[in-house]
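Open question from group meeting: does this chain pack into something compact, or does most of it stay loose? Before anyone orders reagents, we agreed to write out a predicted structure and look at it together. Recording both the input and the output here so the notebook holds the full record.
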Amino acid sequence: MASHRRPKQPSRTRVTVLTTAAAAAVALSANAANAAPSEKLSKDEVKAKVDALYEQAEQATEKYNGAKEKQEKLQKEISTIQDNVARGQEELNKLRDGLGSMASAQYRSGGIDPSVQLFLSSNPDDYLDKASTLDQLSSQQVEALKKIQDKQRELAQERAEATDKLKDLASTRTELGKKKKEVQGKLAEAQRLLNTLTAKEKAALAAEQSRASRSSTERVDLGNDTSASGRAAAAFSAAQSKIGSPYVYGASGPSSFDCSGLTSWAYAQAGVSIPRTSQAQAGIGAHLSMSQLQVGDLVFFYGDLHHVGLYAGNGQVLHAPHTGAVVRYESINNMPFQFGVRV
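Structure tokens returned:
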């Protein structure tokens, strides 16, 4: 027979616990729904974060420049090797054709036994001349075969070298793409932060940047630091002509620059070829202390040497600072100076 007992009622304690938990859950939900968005960053905080992102972007930019330079170098080397292979193949084909002609001539002249040729010859002297020619052809064949073998080995080596460089080129292009994406990501994040500012804050920040970027007609007071070698002076003069030009990552002139793009372009105008990246430029000469610097010397900043400029004298550097800025003079003490290099 089925039981009709009433179900056991929950205890007063259990009801209290459940009610309290439910109330807490509702309160948390309400608080989450009504919670204010995270506190807005101040203009100075945004600027500090943006500056840090610009520095990170510049680090990635120099690696991007290195990969780009390597890619261009590999493309030139591969093109040269491929041209050499094409010319070598033509030479090999000519050698083979020549060997084939020799073989045909020898067959035509030497197809009959020499004693029979002598017996049938109406002119023994003519036979002796032919015999001499046969000997000469044989010698030429040996030499031709040796040349063919040498050319085949040379072509095999060049093709293997081209294959290796093509693999290196493919990995370099992959690295180039990664660095480009990294730079663009940093710049996009910086822009996102800048977009959180009010119009008034953006205007104030732009005014600060404008004050930092001196006009292209303003010349820094060089004081007593006017000494410079002919090439360094010419490079510095070229860089001065670009004051006010915008910073663009990966750019090396003539209308926009990144830091090492400016220094390499400036020295190129002085007839001097220096490496493209700041790290590579740091290795082209002896290191100089700040007191040893002369106008036009390369000056390097940060521990990983990802920034470079030209010494302008009187404790100033002429450089392309970062995205959003232009080529300008700046105090050498605004960045962590490492050393200088005289080209």
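Observations to bring back to the group:
The two ends are 107 Å apart (CA to CA).
The helical segments are 12-34, 43-110, 114-120, 124-194, 199-212, 230-240, 259-269, 278-281.
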